[in-house]
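Query structure, 293 tokens:
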């Protein structure tokens, strides 16, 4: 089974409060986009589990890879040994706030469940996904959605508009835990005041509404730490983006353009710097994990 796994961008992200479980309550809007990794699982019943990774980046040890952890979580939840070779081909940059690893993990859960006779019901898959990571439930059935809780509570947005996007990734990554630590330090250093408010999220049925709603609580603290991020945002706007934003905890940013024709010269201009990776893509109204094999 060979599945394509999409990236996502974060249209809005509010970090509301820390939780007793070590996570944070958040509010936000996630949207899948047409930038893909590939997860291929070859079932080998008489073999153990192996993972092969084709990536331009160092993704660390096998045991820390979310694909490996998802396959092991499926084994634990079902008692079914996963005898398989999993091949992961990476195109989505890591440490970018684009959810590539989370999408890979979700697709691995879906594929294992199909290949081994669907022992897990949808609610079981949601539970296993949430245990693996806050973004992973979103990627079980990727489509525009509001997120709440620590990211595992989802409300679909069926009328979300199509967006023409340009993702720009600098040559450094940002760890999610580090971004949350810096945000907490910034907030603790402020004068005492009211707790962060959880406000209503706009309907987001038009591109104008989406552009007006762009917001990410991590931008002030991460722009202060990495001036290059603010530079990329300014370059996107100067190149014609209607709006631009840091995606998740970064380090990638994205710009929203009126048309693909308006995006093309911006993509060429930012690519010519030689400093950043540039990914033209589109928002997706949904994504189905259909095997290409």
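Result returned for the query:
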């Amino acid at each position: 089974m060979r599945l394509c796994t999409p990236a996502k961008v974060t249209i809005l992200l509010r970090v509301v409060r820390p939780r007793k479980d070590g996570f944070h309550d958040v509010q936000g809007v996630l949207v899948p986009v047409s930038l893909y990794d590939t997860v291929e699982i070859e079932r080998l019943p008489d073999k153990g589990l192996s993972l092969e990774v084709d990536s331009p980046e160092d993704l660390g040890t096998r045991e820390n890879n979310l694909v490996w952890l998802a396959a092991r979580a499926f084994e634990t939840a079902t008692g079914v040994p996963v005898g398989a070779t999993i091949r992961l081909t990476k195109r989505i940059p890591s440490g970018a706030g684009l959810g590539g690893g989370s999408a890979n993990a979700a697709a691995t859960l879906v594929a294992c469940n199909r290949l081994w006779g669907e022992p897990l019901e949808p609610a079981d898959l949601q539970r296993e996904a949430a245990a693996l990571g806050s973004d992973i439930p979103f990627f079980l059935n990727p489509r525009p959605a509001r997120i709440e809780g620590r990211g595992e509570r989802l409300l679909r947005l069926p009328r979300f508009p199509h967006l023409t996007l340009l993702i720009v990734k600098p040559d450094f990554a940002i760890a999610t835990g580090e971004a949350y630590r810096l945000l907490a330090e910034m907030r603790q250093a402020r004068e005492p005041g009211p707790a962060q408010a959880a406000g209503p999220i706009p309907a987001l049925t038009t591109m104008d509404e989406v552009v007006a709603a762009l917001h990410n609580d991590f931008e002030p603290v991460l722009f202060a730490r990495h001036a290059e991020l603010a530079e990329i945002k300014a370059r996107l706007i100067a190149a014609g983006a209607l709006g631009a934003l840091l995606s998740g905890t970064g380090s990638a940013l994205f710009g929203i353009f009126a048309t693909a024709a308006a995006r093309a010269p911006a993509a060429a201009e930012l690519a010519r710097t030689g400093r950043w990776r540039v990914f033209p893509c589109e928002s997706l109204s949904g994504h189905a994990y259909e095997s290409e094999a």
